[in-house]
Amino acid sequence: MLSDSDPLRGKLNGLLGSLPPAELAFVQPNLHRAFFWPGEVIQAPGQPIFDVYFIQRGLAAVVFDSSSGVAADAALVGRSGLVGAELSTSATLGTRRAVGRLCVEALRMPRGAFIEALSWCPTLSSRVARYHQLLRTFEFQSAACAATHDDDRRLARWLLTVSDAVPVPRFPLNAESQAAMLGLAAPVARAVHRRLARAGLIRSTNGQVTVLSRERLEQVACDCYRNLRRQEAQLIG
C-alpha cells in the first residue's frame, strides 16, 4: 500500500497524479510497489491479467510478435501510462506482450480493485480509456513505420521516444535492447547505431546512450515521431 510517507507519493505516475483527491484516495490503498528488470515479462498475451501496473520510473515495451517470428516494439510505456489498460475494455486475458525495456518501478493494482475503481472514479476511467486508445494508435503507427521507413530513421525515432519518457539526455540502452526495439539482429542494430554515432547525433559508452544533438536527431527521425507526439498531446495531454 502507498502511504503518505512513501517517497513515491509526491511523484506519482501521470495517470494517478492527474486524479482528483477523492479518486486518488479511493485507489491509494490498493497500490503496491513492483519492479521489473529489462527483458522481464510484465504481461503475456493470452494469459489472465491479474494486475495492472502504473509505471513510476523506467520504461516498459509493448511488443509485437509477428507470425514470422520477428518481434519488435510497438509502443513504450513510461510515467504517463500503465500496462494492462485493456482491462478497461472488459478483457480478462492479455492481448499484448509487455516487457521491461529499462528497469521498471511501478505501482501494481490488483484486477478486482482496478475494475471497481473504474466504476467509481470517472476521471480515472476516462483517462485509462484514452490511454488505451493511444496505445492502439502507437501500435498501428509502429507497424506502418516498420514496413515503410529505413532503420536509421526508426532508431532515431525510438531514441527520441526513450529520451522523452525518461526524460534525460543519457539513458541505459544497450545494443540488444535497441535490436529488440527495431526487430533486427543485434549486428544490424549495432551498424545502425554506429551510423547515428558517426553523424554526431548520439554517443554510446558502456551501454549508456547520450543524445548529443536532439535537434538533428529529430531531423533524421521519421515523421512517425512527430505524428505520435501530436496524438499523445491530443489524447492525454
Primary descriptors:
Arc Repressor Mutant, subunit A; globular; 2 domains; four-stranded antiparallel β-sheet; 237 residues; Jelly Rolls
Topology:
Elements: H1 14-17, H2 21-27, E1 32-36, E2 41-43, E3 51-57, E4 60-65, E5 71-77, E6 82-83, E7 97-100, E8 104-110, H3 111-120, H4 122-148, H5 151-165, E9 170-172, H6 175-182, H7 186-198, E10 202-205, E11 208-211, H8 214-220, H9 223-236
Antiparallel strand pairs: 1-8, 2-7, 3-6, 3-8, 4-5, 4-7, 9-11, 10-11
Helix pairs in contact: 4-9, 5-7, 5-8, 6-7
Largest β sheet strand count, sense and barrel closure: 4 strands, antiparallel
| Widest β-sheet, arrangement of strands | 1-8-3-6
Query: Under CATH, the topology of the largest domain is which?
Result: Jelly Rolls
| Straight-line N-to-C gap | 28 Å
What's the tally of helices? 9
Order of helices and strands: HHEEEEEEEEHHHEHHEEHH
Give Rg in angstroms. Answer: 18 Å
Mean of all residue-level pLDDT scores: 88
β-strand percent reads 15-25%
Care to count the β-strands?
Answer: 11
Q: What is the CATH H-level superfamily of the largest domain? A: Jelly Rolls
CATH architecture of the largest domain: Sandwich
> Percent of residues in helical segments?
40-55%
Count of discrete structural domains: 2
Low-confidence stretches: none
**Net shape:** globular
